[in-house]
Structure formats: C-alpha cells, structure tokens
Amino acid sequence: MVSFVDIPLELLPIIFDSVIRAQHLAFLCLVNKSFNEFAVPRLYQRVYIYSWHKEAKSKVVLLFQTLSSCPRLAHYVSRLEIRAFPKALISSSYSDLLDLCTRGIRNCVNLRSCAWTRDGSLESAILLALQQCPKLKELEINGKDSGYYDPNILAQFSKLSRISLIMPSAPVIEVLPSWISATGSTLRNLTMICQTSSLITDALLESLAPSMTELDQLFIIGCPKVTHRSIGEIVSTNRNGITSIGLERLSPAFDMTRFNNICKEHRAFRRLRSITLAVHIETPFRTWTGDVTELLSTAPLEILQIYATTPTAKVVIADEFWKTIVTMHGSRLKRFSIDRMTISLDALRDICSRCSVLEQLFVVTVGHNLDDVTLCFAAAQNLRAIHVNFYREMNETEGRSMMNDAMRIIQQCPATVTQIGCDTRVWQSTRYDVTVRMNDKAELYTHIPEQFLVARGA
Predict the structure, then answer these.
(1) Are 346 and 323 in contact (CB under 8 A)?
(2) Do 355 and 326 contact (CB within 8 A), yes or no?
(3) What is the chain's alpha carbon radius of gyration, rounded to the nearest angstrom?
C-alpha cells in the first residue's frame, strides 16, 4: 500500500506551500529526511512573533538563540517580524539577549524585510546589525527612539524600497529628510503612523517630496498638521503615478476639492488601485463625496476603504455615492471596506450584486439588521472574507454571541467564503456538504489584515 511518505518529491513543494501554520511545518520537518529538506526552508522563510502569541517574549529568546547558533537556519530567513520583546530583564540578561539578537540578525544574510515595533526594544546595536544584511529592502520600526538608538543610523539605510515609521519622535523626524534623500531612488513605499502627532507637518512632507518621485505607495495616519497642500505636492511631483494611498486622521483643514484639482491637473491617480480615506464628522458630506467621486473617476481602482474618524450613526453617506462608485469600479473592486459608519441595505445589496470580483467585504451594521445584511452577502458570488462590526446603540445592553452571529452569516453566504469575522473575532470556515465547521483563526494568520493592526481612533 502506498503511504503519504511515498509522494514524489517534486510534489512536496506544491503541497508544503499550502501549509499555513508554522507548527504544522515543524511537524513536517520531523517526518523524514526528504520532508525535512523541503519543510525547513519554508518554516524559517518568514519568522514572526506577535504580542498576542502565547509566551511571546520567551519565544523571542529561543528564536535568537537558534538564529545566532545555527547560521544554516538563519540563511533561510527572508522576513523577520518582532512585535513583542522581553524588556523587563535585569541588566546582564538584557545585555546577553541583545548580543543574541545582533549575532542572529547578522546570520540572516538573505533577510529582505524586518519589522521591529515594540516600544523601547530597538537599540543602536540592532540597527547596525541590520545594516550588515545585504539584501534588506523593507524596514518597519518604532520611531520613538527615547535614547535607545541613535536616529542618525537610520540615514545609513540607503537602499530601502519600503520605510514604515510608527510614532516617530522629534530626533527621528529631524533625520528624515537626509534619510529619504539617501534612499529616494529606491524608495517605493512610505508609511508614517502616529496617534495625534504635531511633528509631521506640511513643511516636512514638502521637503521630502523632491526625493520621493519614484514612490508607489503612501500612507499617512494620525497627523493633524498635514493638509492637502503637502500631499498634493508629493503626488504632483511623482513621476509614474501613485498606486496606493492612505490618508487617515489628517487635518480637518484638508480640502478635498483642492486636492482633487491637484490630482486631476497632474493625472496623479492614473495608476491608483487602492485608497483608504477617513472622513471627519464635521465634513460636508455632499461636497466631500462629490470630490472623492471625481478624484477616483480615472483610477483603475481595486480596493476602497472608507471610515469615519469617530464611530457614530451620524455619519451617513448617501446611497448615490456608493452607487456611482460601483458603476465606475464594480468590475474591478476586490475589497470594499466601510467602517465606523453604517450603510443602507440598498447600497450594500448593490455593492454585493454588482461588484462581480469582490473578495473581501468589511461593513458595520446594527444587530437587529443582521438577517437582512446576510441576504445581501449572498449576492456576492466570489466573496472569500467577510467582517461585520456591530454598531452599539446607547441603550443597548443585550450581550451578543459573536460565534452565533458568525454562524448565522456563514450559513447564508456563498460557498466561496472561507473567513468570517465579527467585531474582534475571526474564524476560518470549512464546509462539509450542508454543515459548516468554524475554527478560530487568530493563530492562522500569515498576513494580519490592517484592520487589526492599526487602531483607527479619533
């Protein structure tokens, strides 16, 4: 009798590429020598530790013990994400851990992407070790140096294609012009995420614009001193046209009409495939929606994400806006995300029925509308993922079972849906004839959706 271990070796890479969980790849490494040969490179290709992982901080120590002592395994690491770190250690133990980290990083000679985001965990020694990784192209860091690292080291990363800064401090902001100037010819993606920082201003971004003419993707979040002026300068000096942009929680003085005029004059969105916009509650919605409609009229849009800066039922965008968007882009839209604002059943039904290639849908609803909302989902025949956030009325006290809500949704959805989320929970669904099996997906993510990474506060 032929057994699983008798599978032709040339099929193993195809099979292993479908294995999601690192734990399962680890099991495959133990089957036999052939399985080990194909599974180990995949197990170490992307190494990630998130704060919600069980014993995450202990895993950091174990990880860098492995990478520092076994260059062969470190050689396979292409993407390293450290989003948890054991800071509460005595001085000598912390020094030993830092030494492990730097030696482990230097062994990762094929490292292309690194994220190190735990506040206070990034040190100068780690940055210097990362500079010795010859293939490093993407860097995501906590920008709050707090004296732990020298911001001047950042300007020495001169060949990056992606830079992501979280909560950058004043010293980091000071070196940003020289850093962007040094890496401008290769830079394709710039992300700056703040809470309510006044350090990032129009003047700063305008000074960066001449060095970012090759930029493809721009995401500015939580910068209330940034207006249409600097964003318009960046997109108007861009040579090839932006493909993805996120403008979230910027200045209330951001004038969408003037921004639209700048973009039209320079055909700045001729290649735009993804846009994320946040709308203030004080915004005149009729004017804003008209400007956004015109702004996107020539874009080959595939992803549209719009949310209110303050969760409230008062933010109501007219159905005509959604209808126009669907008419213009419905044949291409793959993700539609509407958060912190409700949408009418008629508009939702239109989105689901006319967006023929829609794969991901994020919406907000009230609990008593769930059955009607689910009927709308049934019209979207290519959906892969649905996430529903429930708007809570002021006097609502009834507790909800997110699992029961998810089951009600998934049982009425097309069989193509494999991921379902309600509020803060996400499940993977598998269908067996007429039954549906739900598995908690918290540990299955290989890429965390941005809705769960960034808190979109007011």
Answers:
(1) no
(2) yes
(3) 24
